Amino acid sequence: MLYLPPSSISSPLITSNAKNRKKLKGHRLLCSPSRVLHLRQIPSDATEAEVLSLVLPFGKVTNILMLKRKRQAFLEMAAEEAAVNVINYYAPAAPLLRNQPVFIQYSNHRELKTDNLPNQTRAQAMLQALNAMQSGSWAVTSASDAGGGLCPGLGCVLRIIVGNVFYPVTLEMLHQIFSTFGSVLKIITFTKNSQFQALVQYDDPRSAYYAKMTLHGRNIYTACCTLHIDFSKFTSLTIKYNNEKSRDFTRLDLPSGDGQIYMDQPIAVAYGKKPSLSAVPGALGSLALTTPVAPGQMTYPGVVANSVLLVSNLNPEAITPHGLFILFGMYGDVHRVKIMFRKKENALIQMADANQAQLAISHLDGQRLYGRVLHATFSKHHTVQLLREGQDDQGLTKDYSNSPLHRFKIPGSKNFQNIFPPSDTLHLSNIPSFITVDDMKNLFASTGCTVKAFKFFQNNCKMALIQLGSVEEAVHALIELHNHDLGQNHHLRVSFSKFTI
């Protein structure tokens, strides 16, 4: 029978000698890996399935001991290497169950002996069901009979809702993430109720299950693009076109079409009600991680984590560091800009972080600027060097680190929710009451733009929309007029709009 750790290990009322013993014990546990993991501070209402979900992505579990009254559990992994991977992954930040941190350490037991222990039938039945799944024997009925509700409606298709979208999420990105857990056959992306959603079909239910348990509740990027995952009501997806919105990876011969998608059940039936997201907060380690990153953030192979952009094919007669600062500042906080002295068609732009740099690339690469199509990519440099004392490059290098015009320096700002690609319609704000429609039209016409339409917001005369002759004209106007002084210390705010007039 397993010797249970004394309850005093979680009590704050211990003597200094006991503290020293505990410290030495903790040090010994950290330095002595074991196949048995000790989990503490488990929520009292957490299920066996939720506890197991914390370690299942790292390897097979061979035994489990649940101590619900003590809010503890012991999990025995099949291999010591798997236990080491669990400890290493959760070292930076404790995983969450039902929004509460759970602490994991090595146990001083080398194996679990749970024979004849009371109140372990449910946990053992759940573990047996999971082992059957891992070995390919998908006994769904047995899993459900275990009482944990682990596999109701288990299938191969997952429904993903991406919340708090700050950076763009693409079909290719989803394929990269979900392929880690098995063979992805088909993906459909769409927007419903202003939410970015996707359907992902695997070739077997086991892969779908592990993907859901591992990724549900995770952020693609730090503090944003949160994945909410549930099993879909669809049993399979039928895709007619391969394009940026839908993809059948088993049918590379499909045409690109117009993006229309087809499924085997009516969308109105499946999505007529508000989605019910799983309560299982699978804040787990993503097996897609290829390099160490901050907890809650994923990286993707082939994406260089660099905050410095190389921008090329610029018009040297028109472009300025300030113009690049304003334009790229639509998608992140620009810290430094350097136009090359000997090759003024090229520039280096240092963003606040690599995520903002990626966002700028996705929206501005290929955009026409002053008669040329600019190209933006990651630079091999990791910082933009400022000039040494005495150097002069004719004002081509600028430091904007402390600029008051940064749009994203305030956490939770509404600017995070209003990032859109360049369009011919601009959103204007901070307009004083004495400014008329003709004043605004004349202002934008003075930059050489054609004003096609202008409209004040009905309930807020401080904001307006203006439609110009082309996207390129709107880009030029944004550069020229953002922060323009309209008088009486009112500075115009300009951004790209998702609406048209």
Helical/strand content category: alpha+beta
Record field, number of beta strands: 25
Q: Quickly give the CATH architecture of the largest domain.
A: 2-Layer Sandwich
Report the average pLDDT across residues: 77
Basic shape: elongated
Give a quick account of the main beta sheet: strands, pairing sense, barrel closure: 6 strands, antiparallel
Strand order in the sheet with the most strands: 10-11-7-9-8-13
Q: Give the CATH class of the largest domain.
A: Alpha Beta
Low-confidence stretches: 1-30, 136-153, 259-304
The helix fraction, in percent, is: 10-25%
Cα-based radius of gyration, to the nearest Å: 28 Å
Number of helices: 12
Explain how this protein is built.
A hairpin with a 4-residue loop joins strand 2 and strand 3. The chain has 4 domains: 139 residues, RRM (RNA recognition motif) domain (Alpha-Beta Plaits, 2-Layer Sandwich); 114 residues, Alpha-Beta Plaits; 92 residues, RRM (RNA recognition motif) domain (Alpha-Beta Plaits), CATH 3.30.70; 77 residues, RRM (RNA recognition motif) domain (Alpha-Beta Plaits), CATH 3.30.70. The strands form 7 sheets. The protein has a 6-stranded antiparallel beta sheet. A 5-stranded antiparallel beta sheet has the order 20-15-17-16-21, with helices on one face. A 4-stranded antiparallel beta sheet has the order 2-3-1-6. 23% of the residues lie in helices and 24% in strands. The chain is built from 12 helices and 25 strands. With 501 residues, it is of the alpha+beta class. The N terminus is likely disordered.
